[in-house]
Every structure is written in C-alpha cells, then in structure tokens.
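ARCHIVE ENTRY
Sequence with per-residue tokens
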Amino acid sequence: MRRLIPASKAPLGLAGFLALPIFFASLMAVTLAIEKARVVEWTRGKGIARVWHEPTGSTEAKIWLLALVPPLLLVAAGWVAAHFPYALYVTCAAAIIDALALTIRLHRWELHHTARFAYGEDLLADQTTSSSLQRGEWEHDAAQTVWSLVHYTIGLSLAAALIATYLTVRRRRGGPVAPPPPPLELVTGGAPPTSA
C-alpha cells in the first residue's frame, strides 16, 4: 500500500494546479466537438416547419464528462511521475502535451459546430433584432478561449520547470540555508511561578 503513496507530493500538486486551465479549455473544446441543437420539425402546409431548441440534458452531461478526461489524465501522469526522478519536469511536459492535444482538431470542431447551429449559438436568426450572436461568432470566441488557456497552461508549466531548475541548482551549489526556527515554549496557563 505504501508504494501507491509517492514520496514527493509536489508533482501531484502541480498536476492538480495545471489541470484547472486544462479542464476549462477541454470544456470549450468538447462543446465545440459534440454540442448540437435539438431540432423539432413538422409538416406545415406544403413545407416543413423547423424550430431550434437548446441541446438536450444528456448532451450536456456527455460534454461535462468528456471534459474531465484530459485533466484526469494529467493528474494520473503527475501521480505516476511522482514515483520516479525528475517528476516535476515530467509533469510539466505532460501538461504541455495534454494542452496541445486539445488544439489538434480545434478548427474543424469550430467549423462543425457552426454548421450544426444554423442560427448561431443563441438559436435566433441573424436578421432578427433579438439575435445577440451572429452565426459562427460564439464558436470563434470559444476557439480563441481554448488557445488562450492552452498558452496559459504552457506558460505555467515552463515557469514551474524553471523554478524547479533554479531550486535544484541552488541546492547543489550549497546556497544559503535558513536557520531552524527557535524552539517554542509551551505555556500551560495559570499564575507564573514564584520564588520562596
């Protein structure tokens, strides 16, 4: 059982910290990949009437569950790496790879999401006065958000690797070590002792 607990918990903590921006980037990317409007059609006279509705609850649940996969993979990689040398560097590399993997098909998902929402994310035609988003506008903003979070994750990973390198070099060169704190006196309460 002790083999399951890594000696150093820093890589696992770093993986958990870097999993946050990856989760939000993953949420946007998965939404672009699989979200679709619910369309209700019926025959009306000689034509077909069509009404667009919000995605179903099962689609939303699938999006949230799939969005959890990349951050959980990163945390698992941090846990495995914590059992080996250079664990912080491996965790940083795993975070960068995990983040970049979200962008591989991002442009295609953006185009497909735009095609699935004929009236845009707000489900209102662009020519109506109630339309707040033009077709493709939400998708473009979502893709830009994914890229922003990916860059943020890469920057944090590189900063963590640089800090780890700096601390390692400093420790090996025998940099100044802080003195231990003075011992604490235990005060139990009551009146101070008196001399007789």
The chain has a mean pLDDT of 84.
